[in-house]
Design goal:
single chain; mainly alpha; five-stranded mixed beta sheet; 21 helices
C-alpha cells in the first residue's frame, strides 16, 4: 500500500519532471549556501551586525538552517499550494522560536540556545511527516502505513544525504592534501573560504537528496535492513530493562538518585525502546509481521515502558520537591508527559491484543503514535514560546519557595536568577532587592552587581581529614602524633582506606630515631619528626614496569626489600639550599626481587 501511496503522491509541484526537480533542488541548496555565507559575514567586525541585532540574526539563522532541507524533501511530494502554505507557516514559526529564545535572555551577548535548535528541528521533522501523508491522501488523517513509510524513508534519506556530504568533503580534503604535498596549496586554501564551502555544501546536500529520491528502491532496501537490525536489538534492550527493573527493588534507588542524571538516563532508555518497538512493528501490515519472538519482545517492551517512565517520574518529582523547578526539570517533565502517552497506549495495545496472532496484533499503537506526535509538536511549541517558557516558570517557582520558607535566604540560588534565567530572573532579582528580609535584599543586590557567576560562588573550604594507614609489620605502632587531622596538601590526606597507604618505621640517617616511610601506589614519602610535628621531607617515585614482575612500593615494604643506599652522585647546593637532585639518565623500573632504582639517583 505504501508504494501505491507514494506513487500517487509524487506528482506534486505540478507534475515536475526529474530534470525540473533536480534544478529546483540545486537552486534551493545553492540559495541556502549563499544565505549562510551572508549570515557568516554578519558575524564579522567589531561589533558585528549579529551582536548588535541578536534577535534579528537568530530569526534569520534558524529558518536558513532548517527550512531548505524541508523544501528539498517536499519537491514532488507536496502540492504547490500546500508547499507554499506549509513553508510560510514553518518559516514564521522557526523565526518566532528563535526570536523568543533570544529576547527572553538578558545581556547583550544573547545567543540561540542549543536546546532550541534541537527541539525545533525535532518539531519540524515530526510536523512535516504528519502533513505530507495527509496531503497525499487528501484527508486530515492519513492511513498509518503512509505515516510510517514517509517518516522512516525520510530518516534514512536524511542520514544518507548527510553521510554523502561528509564523504564528499573527505574526498576534497584528501585531494587538497595530495596537491599540498607537491607544493600546490591552492585547493586547500580555496576550500576553507566561507564563500566556497558554504554554497558547495548546500549544493552537495541537495544533490544527495535528489540522488536518494530518484533511486528510491535502494533507499527502501536500506530502510528494510535498518529496520530488521533495529528490531532484533529490541530483544537486547528489553532484557536489559527487564533485568534493571527486576533488580531495582532489591538494590534500592539511592544509587540511582545519586547519579544526578537518573531521569535523563531513564528517558533516553524509554526513547530508545519506543524507536525499537516501532522498528519491529513497522506499518502493521500482515506481510511485515515480525517473527514470534519479536512479537513477544514488542509486547513485553511495551509493558515495561510503564514502570520505566514511572521511575523517571518518581525521580523527577523528588528533585522538584527538594529543589524546585529548573528549566531542565521542566523540559524533562514535558518529555515524561509525552512518554506517558506512548507508555499508556503501547501497554494498552500489548494487553488488549495479547491473544491475537496476526493482523492488528498491536493496532492501538498506530493511534498512539499519531496522538503522541501531535502532542510532541504542541509541547515543543509551548516550551519555546511564552506559553510555557521554562525560565519564567522556574523563576516563579523558585521565588515562591523562598517566600514560603522552603529554602533559606542563605541557601537560595541568586546566581540562577542573575545569570541562568534571562530577563525573568533579572526582574525577580529586582523585586528581591526590596524584600523585607535584609538578608534576601543584601544577597539579591550582590547578585545584581556581580559580573559573573563565579563572584557568587562561595569557595569550598578544604576540610581536614584523619588518615587511615596500615602499618608493617602487623602489630607495629606508628609514633605518637603521626595519625592526626591533616589538610589536603599533606600526603597523608590521600589515605582514606586501609589499603591506600602502608607505613613502615626505618632509621634512614643513622641518628637513632625512626623515620616513617609512607608507601602509596607509585611513591614512598619520607616523614621525619620536626619541632612542629611529623612533616614530609620528600619522596621517592618508582618507575612503572610493563613486565609481569612489577612490584609496588607497598609490596616492597611487605617483602622487607626497602633499604637505604648512598646516591652515586651528590646533590648540588646553591648557598644553603639544594639546587637540584641527581636523576639517572636511563632509570630502571622496579622489579622483583631487586629494588634497584627505587632510591637510585
Amino acid at each position: 500500500m505504501s508504494e501505491a501511496v507514494d506513487a500517487g503522491g509524487r506528482a506534486g509541484l505540478g507534475g515536475q519532471t526529474g530534470r525540473m526537480a533536480v534544478l529546483i533542488r540545486l537552486a534551493i541548496g545553492l540559495a541556502q549556501g549563499l544565505a549562510l555565507y551572508l549570515l557568516f559575514r554578519a558575524t564579522e567586525g567589531e561589533p558585528s551586525w549579529s551582536e548588535s541585532h541578536p534577535a534579528a540574526f537568530a530569526m534569520m539563522v534558524l529558518p536558513t538552517l532548517f527550512l531548505p532541507p524541508l523544501m528539498l524533501a517536499s519537491v514532488g511530494r507536496l502540492r504547490p499550494l500546500t508547499l507554499a502554505i506549509w513553508g510560510a507557516i514553518a518559516a514564521a514559526t522557526l523565526a518566532l522560536l528563535a526570536w523568543h529564545d533570544v529576547v527572553r535572555q538578558s545581556g547583550a551577548s544573547a545567543q540561540p540556545t542549543p536546546q532550541m535548535f534541537l527541539f525545533s528541528a525535532a518539531a519540524l521533522f515530526i510536523a512535516h511527516h504528519l502533513i505530507v501523508p495527509a496531503d497525499r491522501e487528501r484527508r486530515l488523517l492519513a492511513p498509518y502505513p503512509a505515516y510510517f513509510d514517509t517518516a522512516w524513508m525520510a530518516g534514512v534519506q536524511l542520514a544518507a544525504s548527510v553521510a554523502f556530504t561528509g564523504v564528499f568533503w573527505g574526498l576534497l580534503g584528501l585531494g587538497a592534501a595530495l596537491f599540498n604535498v607537491i607544493g600546490l596549496s591552492f585547493l586547500g586554501d580555496l576550500l576553507v573560504k566561507p564563500w566556497v564551502f558554504l554554497p558547495l555544501t548546500g549544493l552537495t546536500f541537495a544533490t544527495a537528496v535528489h540522488l536518494t529520491d530518484v533511486r528510491e528502491g535502494l533507499i527502501r532496501g536500506v530502510r528494510t535492513i535498518a529496520l530488521m537490525l533495529l528490531s532484533w536489538l529490541l530483544l537486547v534492550l528489553t532484557l536489559l530493562v527487564g533485568g534493571f527493573l527486576f533488580a531495582l527493588p532489591f538494590t534500592g534507588v539511592e544509587s540511582l538518585w545519586g547519579t544526578g542524571s537518573a531521569t535523563a538516563l531513564l528517558l533516553a532508555t524509554a526513547g530508545g525502546m519506543i524507536i525499537l518497538i516501532n522498528a519491529a512493528y513497522q506499518d502493521g501490515r500482515e506481510d511485515n509481521l515480525p517473527p514470534a519472538v519479536l512479537r513477544i519482545a514488542v509486547r513485553v517492551a511495551s509493558v515495561l515502558l510503564v514502570p520505566l517512565l514511572g521511575v523517571a517520574l518518581w525521580g523527577l518529582a523528588l528533585r522538584i520537591g527538594q529543589h524546585g523547578l529548573t528549566p531542565d526539570r521542566i523540559i524533562a517533565a514535558a518529555c515524561i508527559v509525552v512518554g506517558v502517552v506512548y507508555a499508556a497506549g503501547y501497554a494498552y495495545a500489548a494487553l488488549r491484543t495479547l491473544w491475537l496472532r496476526s493482523g492488528d496484533w498491536m493496532a492501538p499503537l498506530e493511534r498512539t503514535n499519531v496522538v503522541a506526535a501531535v502532542l510532541a509538536v504542541v509541547t515543543i511549541l509551548a516550551l519555546f514560546t511564552p506559553v510555557a517558557d521554562p525560565a519564567r516558570l522556574s523563576v516563579a517557582d523558585q521565588t515562591a519557595r523562598l517566600e514560603r520558607g522552603a529554602v533559606s535566604a542563605a541557601a537560595f540560588d541568586y546566581g540562577f536568577l542573575a545569570f541562568d534565567s534571562g530577563k525573568a530572573g533579572r526582574a525577580a532579582l529586582d523585586q528581591l532587592t526590596g524584600s523585607d528580609d535584609p538578608e534576601v535584599a543584601r544577597r539579591a543586590s550582590e547578585a545584581q552587581a556581580a559580573e559573573n557567576l563565579a563572584e557568587l560562588t562561595t569557595p569550598i573550604e578544604p576540610q581536614d581529614v584523619t588518615p587511615v594507614i596500615s602499618v608493617w609489620p602487623r602489630g607495629a605502632r606508628l609514633p605518637e602524633g603521626f595519625i592526626v587531622e591533616v589538610g589536603d596538601t599533606d600526603p597523608r590526606s590521600t589515605c582514606r582506606a586501609s589499603n591506600d597507604c602502608l607505613a613502615a618505621l626505618r632509621d634512614l640517617n643513622g641518628d637513632g630515631q625512626n623515620e616513617v616511610l609512607l608507601a602509596r601506589q607509585y611513591e614512598i614519602t619520607l616523614f621525619a619528626r620536626t619541632e612542629e610535628g611529623w612533616a614530609a621531607q620528600g619522596e621517592w617515585r618508582t618507575r612503572r614496569c610493563d613486565g609481569e614482575d612489577r612490584i609496588t612500593p607497598q609490596d616492597a615494604i611487605r617483602r622487607d626489600l626497602i633499604r637505604p643506599v648512598p646516591s652515586p652522585w651528590p646533590d648540588l647546593m646553591a648557598g644553603s639550599q639544594v639546587a637540584g637532585r641527581f636523576e639517572p639518565a636511563n632509570p630502571e623500573c622496579v622489579v622483583f626481587p631487586g629494588m634497584g632504582g627505587l632510591f637510585g639517583g
